[in-house]
Amino acid sequence: MSPPARRTGRPRSAEADRAILGATRAALVELGWSKLTMGDVAARAGVAKTTLYRRWTNKSELVVDAVAALLDEQLELPDLGSLRADVEETVLRFAALLARPEARTSLMAVVAEATRDEALRERIRTAIVDRQKRLVLLGRERAQARGELLREADLAAAARNADLIFDVIAGAVMHRTLVSADAVDAPWARDFAELLLCGLPAPAPAQKPAGSV
Amino acid sequence: MSPPARRTGRPRSAEADRAILGATRAALVELGWSKLTMGDVAARAGVAKTTLYRRWTNKSELVVDAVAALLDEQLELPDLGSLRADVEETVLRFAALLARPEARTSLMAVVAEATRDEALRERIRTAIVDRQKRLVLLGRERAQARGELLREADLAAAARNADLIFDVIAGAVMHRTLVSADAVDAPWARDFAELLLCGLPAPAPAQKPAGSV
Amino acid sequence: MSPPARRTGRPRSAEADRAILGATRAALVELGWSKLTMGDVAARAGVAKTTLYRRWTNKSELVVDAVAALLDEQLELPDLGSLRADVEETVLRFAALLARPEARTSLMAVVAEATRDEALRERIRTAIVDRQKRLVLLGRERAQARGELLREADLAAAARNADLIFDVIAGAVMHRTLVSADAVDAPWARDFAELLLCGLPAPAPAQKPAGSV
Amino acid sequence: MSPPARRTGRPRSAEADRAILGATRAALVELGWSKLTMGDVAARAGVAKTTLYRRWTNKSELVVDAVAALLDEQLELPDLGSLRADVEETVLRFAALLARPEARTSLMAVVAEATRDEALRERIRTAIVDRQKRLVLLGRERAQARGELLREADLAAAARNADLIFDVIAGAVMHRTLVSADAVDAPWARDFAELLLCGLPAPAPAQKPAGSV
DNA sequence: TATTAACCGAGACGGTACGTCGGGTCTTGTA
DNA sequence: TACAAGACCCGACGTACCGTCTCGGTTAATA
Lengths: 213, 213, 213, 213
What we know:
Four copies of one chain form a homotetramer. Chain A has two domains: 14-58, Homeodomain-like (Arc Repressor Mutant, subunit A, Orthogonal Bundle); 83-198, Tetracycline Repressor, domain 2. Chain A is 69% helix and 0% strand. Chain A contains nine helices and no strands. The longest helix of chain A is centred in the middle third of the chain and has 29 residues, at 118-146. The radius of gyration of chain A is 22 Å and the shape is elongated. Chain A starts with 13 loop residues before the first helix and ends in a 15-residue tail after the last helix. Chains in contact: A-B, C-D. Chains A and B meet through α1, α6, α7, α8 and α9 of A and α6, α7, α8 and α9 of B. Chain D binds a DNA duplex (31 and 31 nucleotides) through α2 and α3.
């Protein structure tokens, strides 16, 4: 069932594979998705266009693969002694990643493409989202150990909550960077952490009776 | 201030503006971003291609404006009597909009394109971001009137805060929808509103004594 | 029958007429027929396009009028004492005229346009051809007076002959200049006059028995 | 000498060359120069527009070649036994060609365009002028073989002379047809051949006693 | 060692859309 | 009315990229 390993004929050049992916990543950084052309990638890789199409059926497929390789870098969770400090630092690290043009461009390109490609969406979910979610889980673990966070009884609720926090953090940073086109700097990170930990500033401390969720 | 110029010559047809934006939205729905062509939009609008390019330099710019109009008409702030309910409802409305393929696709395409196009970024900011921020401002106004929110003394801080809240709400919804590829439904909206209003659940109400923040 | 002289309303600006024709000639010289645009002419004349179209229905009509004015300069027949010398000098003068880009360009443009415009053809015939034919008639007159040329008995034949000579001289110069793209210089003029006066070089003097022609 | 290059890559389709030139001629006949469009030619030829532009940079260049092919196929030198008869027949054949509107129109259009386009002038020279000059060379060869013409000693002079004769014949016919707008018919051809072979009718330098005619 | 099938580069091909340009018309406000 | 300005419709222009298709030539496994 698995590919019976083509046997006859000249085998494909592994060199070419490497060169093509490298050239694609370079072109992505310089030009972005929409101005990247197959002809240009081929030229950069010192390869014929035919060679590209022998391996990938599409511009999309090629670029997605190139991006996937690019995004294998991972964020690491800091441990600064308090939940608030850890959140701020994580936000700043993620923003630093998004500040790099190749990351920003290719991430968005792949997300945009995914808006009309179910398979790609699934691929993003497993390759990126699920992998980064561990940061939230780990951070919560630590905070609970420190006594900074309530330990949730309901397991399902706990999972749902982790998902929510992940979307809030990642979404806020991405939205500010890519849509609002504003900088994510230390003051913003501080304000964001404050909001995340304490919520909107209610007028009277007495308004929140004891025992509320 | 801005429109004192343009006195001589035949004025631009407002009719054409409407027809073009309408045709663009219709084409987006039917074809999606990538298959939408300027020529087709012109034909649908009963207008010459030149007339499009006299108003928008690009396919991107045109689509940004069409999307902005779409958001304008679709997003209204509800008034359900409490900040919490208003937030939930707004989140759900925004999610409903993103569930429509033409909105999702074109919004993301435009954002992706903007990652390497400063002018487009600026246009998104003025045409979409600044315009939708009114929802946050209006919502805060009402909540303060109801006594649900502290009235901020510092004006600059108030503005910064509105920006932050906007990015958090819009970012969370977009990220969950487009990146995490999960549904934004009523339970999620409830959890999100809870988090936004109250922050992460601290273990004891008395735990935050002196010296905080 | 003659134009009843419009009376009401603002009269047309004679200034504008002059400016337009001048601008057209200037544009013809610089750009040639095909790259001359109505918009450019209007701009040079400091006039709106509407004003052009109020006076001429077409680009063609406008340019033809401009060319006609240009060609009102005339060639003068020299009198150098012999038919041969007069022919050579006339050829060189005509060539000098064709060497001027505005003359060359606009003349050809108008002729090309005439290939599909009967009315224009007629206009060229009366405005240019018939007017220049006088040179042939005058030259023949003088040569006959000097005894260099046979005086034709048949009047119709004489007229036909003048037409022929005109086409041969003008045609040869124009063809060499415009089609063959070679220079019409003194040696060529000499060779041409020799050919015109004596015909192709026959091998034996005895071949043309008396009384021929 | 000229085609040693071009070794790699897919070779250009000779089929396409034929189809394009054929389609161009057909379009010229139906539409004339100014209404002929590259897109239409491509469609008729069953070829992409790109393929046209890969071979010809311009509408003008393409039409020049199409016209050249037209002349090639239409103009053959007759052999009627005498130089005089051959000249007459050639003149009539050329005139018949110029009577066809597509030939007349496109030839003139191309020449007019060339008055301000050096590259086009060069192309006309090589594609049309040099190619048709063969008729003069061949005709002279035959006439000399028959003993009707002097064999020139000086080679350079012979070449100059062929150029001259070509310009005289082609120029006279074109001028009469296109500028004078008169018919080139059998009588005119006879008069022209007489003039070309014998020159202007001199009164016989002393040979002919006074009072002749 | 010779065969041979699949590879490779180059580049032409049919398409489709792009953004621009010019022709000729129409619509303003002003003189 | 004419005029300057400039928007309008139309249609062709020449370009760019897509993904496919020959070409002539190379290269490793097989026979």
